[in-house]
């Protein structure tokens, strides 16, 4: 078991944002989390990567506790995060964005006396090819399209070589074609990394949900199962309908 | 092509500052005052490099650089004043005249190390660095940034200014330290020493620029820009942001201190007026006007603004602040990349205008 979560809870101003009884993830598993707005999906990822502090509970990653550790420490342990809104370094080139992410000693003096090597160069080109940015390496990241920024951020996470990738709505704001490409990319990455993906787009979920799908509603675990189980579950349909989200029904 | 253009710039600067001005001084048609004036501008340019590193590259608006500048300046000034001291304390150790006027009986303990030039230089670097380390540690640990950073550093500058103003601080109070006579046995009023200090400032500026360029071009420099762009992304990419911020804060403080050390002997006086909030704000304005985020812009801005200051204060003595304010507003509104950015845009436009004319000849060559 790569990730074990028990009785994790956090509340903001008295409102229970998350109250998760259990959540387990295997190594190299691709897990999709769905749920209506405000279900605590992003909050869950925020806790896993150290952005938000949990009130109570246990999170064990690769045999070590995660709670209470700093963002940098958690990143060093092997958890990489991709945010919903693309978060890259807009004034640096795509290549430099990826270079900074590359897993290496990231202390001050190591950075000061860093010498580029062929190994790093090749790896960056390899990842760039994988996310389809091989022609934009010299471009300033701020000039990329929205979809390309999303891919660049995925590339940044991949180059950190994490054991677990936390990916928040990768297809948001993408065209159908871009969405499908992103799905293929995630499936490919799942062969080497464990991945947790949050997604709203049911078509996209169907494409990537090869293993289990977890449904969160109002901070609680509603159910866990295969995509077909989830799609046909009356409680899931109700919770989405209750939110006037007809996407699932139409599907 | 960019390198060739840069080379031209460097050649012009070297020709003007390293050959024409000093040679003119030796031959007698450039006055010693002009030489000292430009020597001081170079000191300001060194501070501006530090401001650009911390603000332009890392995005931390530090408004207390003038304080670090004065820490350097005071340490050298204290040494010079001690060497020229004529009054004697009750224990027989010489002490500056102003202390005797203030009924101080003997040299205060913290003045003692400054009797040695070597210790004065070391302390002039060590104190600002240690100050930046401790103060920076508490600010950056609390994740203070943006406007709050600007306010808290201004508060520091103000507090320190008030402390230095007091006679009880034993640093000369409002009058500061003056009446400089000799440094390392050399009389500071002779033209040769003035020229020497000018050349030393120019050399230091050159070295500071070269080192800053190295720093900015290294991966360290890229991390600084990454922090400016997205601090959270930098943390999630496993960089300890606080270490980097502290390091660059110390580097900027050291640059300011070195500049202050060179500034004091060339000016002949250092007062708390050099470290008030306005002085720090002006340093930030030089960089903004010259071109933030470019080292050359910082140097250009500090030299031009200070040169203008010297001209304007003699032509229209009362209007300097209006002129500076006007320049600053124009820069913020229309030239957010500063003078250097404006120059580059103009050069690029001229280049484009020239290109279509040049193209046909290129095709003619290719056709046969």
UniProtKB/TrEMBL annotation, chain A:
GO molecular function, one term: ATP binding
Keyword ATP-binding included in the entry's annotation: yes
Record keywords: ATP-binding, Nucleotide-binding, Transport
One Pfam family cited in the UniProt record for this chain: ABC_tran
Keyword Iron-sulfur among UniProt keywords: no
Domain called ABC transporter: residue spans: 3-243
Name of this chain's protein: ABC transporter ATP-binding protein
Organism: Dyadobacter endophyticus
UniProtKB/TrEMBL annotation, chain B:
Subcellular location per the Swiss-Prot or TrEMBL entry: Cell membrane
TM spans (from-to): 7-31, 37-55, 67-90, 110-140, 147-165, 195-212, 246-264, 284-308, 315-335
Lineage: Bacteria, Pseudomonadati, Bacteroidota, Cytophagia, Cytophagales
PANTHER family on file: HIGH-AFFINITY BRANCHED-CHAIN AMINO ACID TRANSPORT SYSTEM PERMEASE, SLR1201 PROTEIN
Provenance organism: Dyadobacter endophyticus
Main location (coarse class): membrane
Keyword Transmembrane belongs to the record: yes
Designated name of the protein: Urea ABC transporter permease subunit UrtC
Any matching Pfam family: BPD_transp_2
């Amino acid at each position: 078991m790569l990730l074990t979560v028990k009785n994790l809870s956090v509340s903001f101003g008295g409102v229970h944002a998350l109250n998760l009884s259990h959540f387990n993830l295997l190594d190299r598993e691709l897990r999709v989390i769905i749920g209506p707005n405000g279900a605590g999906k992003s909050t869950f990822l925020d806790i896993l990567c150290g952005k938000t502090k949990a009130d109570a509970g246990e999170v064990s990653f690769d045999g070590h506790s995660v709670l209470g550790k700093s963002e940098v420490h958690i990143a060093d342990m092997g958890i990489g995060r991709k945010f919903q809104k693309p978060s890259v370094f807009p004034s640096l080139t795509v290549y430099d964005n990826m270079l900074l992410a590359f897993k290496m000693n990231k202390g001050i003096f190591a950075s000061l006396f860093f010498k580029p090597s062929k190994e790093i160069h090749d790896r960056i080109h390899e990842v760039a090819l994988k996310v389809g940015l091989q022609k934009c390496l010299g471009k300033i990241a701020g000039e990329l399209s929205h979809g390309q920024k999303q891919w660049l951020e995925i590339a940044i996470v991949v180059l950190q070589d994490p054991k677990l990738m936390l990916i928040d709505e990768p297809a948001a704001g993408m065209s159908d074609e871009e969405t499908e490409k992103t799905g293929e990319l995630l499936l490919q990455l799942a062969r080497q990394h464990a991945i947790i993906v949050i997604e709203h787009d049911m078509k996209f979920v169907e494409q990537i949900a090869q293993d289990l799908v977890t449904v969160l509603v109002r901070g609680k675990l509603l159910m866990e199962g295969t995509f077909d189980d989830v799609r046909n579950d009356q409680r899931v349909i109700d919770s989405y309908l209750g939110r006037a989200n007809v996407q699932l029904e139409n599907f | 092509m960019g390198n060739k253009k840069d080379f031209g710039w460097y050649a012009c600067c070297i020709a003007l500052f390293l050959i024409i001005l000093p040679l003119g001084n030796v031959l007698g048609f450039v006055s010693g005052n002009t030489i000292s004036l430009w020597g001081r501008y170079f000191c300001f340019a060194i501070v501006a490099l530090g401001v650009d590193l911390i603000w332009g590259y890392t995005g931390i608006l530090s408004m207390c650089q003038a304080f670090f500048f004065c820490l350097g300046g005071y340490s050298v000034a204290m040494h010079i004043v001690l060497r020229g001291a004529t009054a004697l304390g009750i224990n027989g150790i010489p002490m500056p005249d102003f202390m005797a006027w203030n009924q101080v009986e003997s040299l205060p303990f913290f003045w003692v190390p400054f009797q040695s030039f070597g210790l004065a230089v070391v302390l002039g670097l060590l104190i600002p660095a240690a100050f930046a380390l401790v103060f920076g540690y508490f600010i950056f640990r609390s994740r203070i940034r943006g406007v709050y950073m600007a306010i808290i550093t201004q508060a520091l500058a103000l507090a320190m200014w008030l402390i230095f103003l007091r006679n009880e601080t034993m640093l000369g109070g409002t009058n500061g330290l003056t009446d400089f006579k000799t440094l390392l046995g050399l009389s500071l009023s002779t033209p040769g020493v003035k020229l020497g200090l000018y050349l030393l400032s120019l050399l230091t500026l050159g070295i500071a620029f070269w080192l800053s360029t190295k720093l900015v071009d290294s991966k360290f420099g890229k991390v600084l820009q990454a922090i400016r762009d997205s601090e959270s992304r930098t943390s999630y990419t496993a960089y300890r942001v606080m270490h980097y911020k502290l390091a660059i804060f110390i580097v900027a403080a050291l640059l300011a201190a070195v500049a202050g050390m060179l500034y004091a002997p060339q000016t002949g006086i250092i007062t708390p007026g050099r470290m008030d909030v306005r002085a720090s704000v002006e340093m930030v304005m030089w960089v903004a006007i010259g071109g933030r985020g470019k080292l050359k812009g910082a140097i250009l801005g500090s030299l031009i603004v200070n040169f203008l200051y010297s001209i304007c204060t003699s032509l229209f003595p009362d209007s300097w602040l209006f002129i500076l304010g006007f320049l600053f507003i124009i820069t913020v509104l229309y030239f957010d990349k500063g003078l250097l950015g404006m120059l580059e845009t103009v050069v690029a436009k001229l280049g484009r205008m020239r290109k279509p004319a040049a193209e046909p000849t290129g095709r003619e060559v290719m056709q046969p």
